[in-house]
Amino acid sequence: MANDLVVIEDGTILSMLADAKYTSAIPCLYNKLEIFRNDNLPCGECRRKRHARQRTEMAKIKSCLAALSNEKKAELKKLLGAAKLRVTYVNASGQVVALTF
Known about the structure:
By secondary structure, this protein is of the alpha+beta class. It is 48% helix and 20% strand. The protein contains four helices and three strands. The chain has a three-stranded mixed β-sheet with strand order 1-2-3. β2 (82-90) and β3 form a beta hairpin. The longest helix has 23 residues, at 44-66. The radius of gyration is 14 Å and the shape is globular. 15% of the residues are buried.
């Protein structure tokens, strides 16, 4: 049975990035796993830069998921076993949007 609603959060996205069935089906996830690897960077500045890049990429992924075609949204729902999905992201105007589809 499908879940009524799956909320796509950072942890959900990280799990999807580690699974080839999602990365091959959803364009927003192509080649993004490397960005989120936790390397032991020796310098604090390097870690801060990596975390900033990860936050930026996570925001881009969420925005991309919200903009998927209806076909890809349906495919993502099927992969996640959900009747509905919710993704919260910041739009181009800087507004926080909680989109349910």
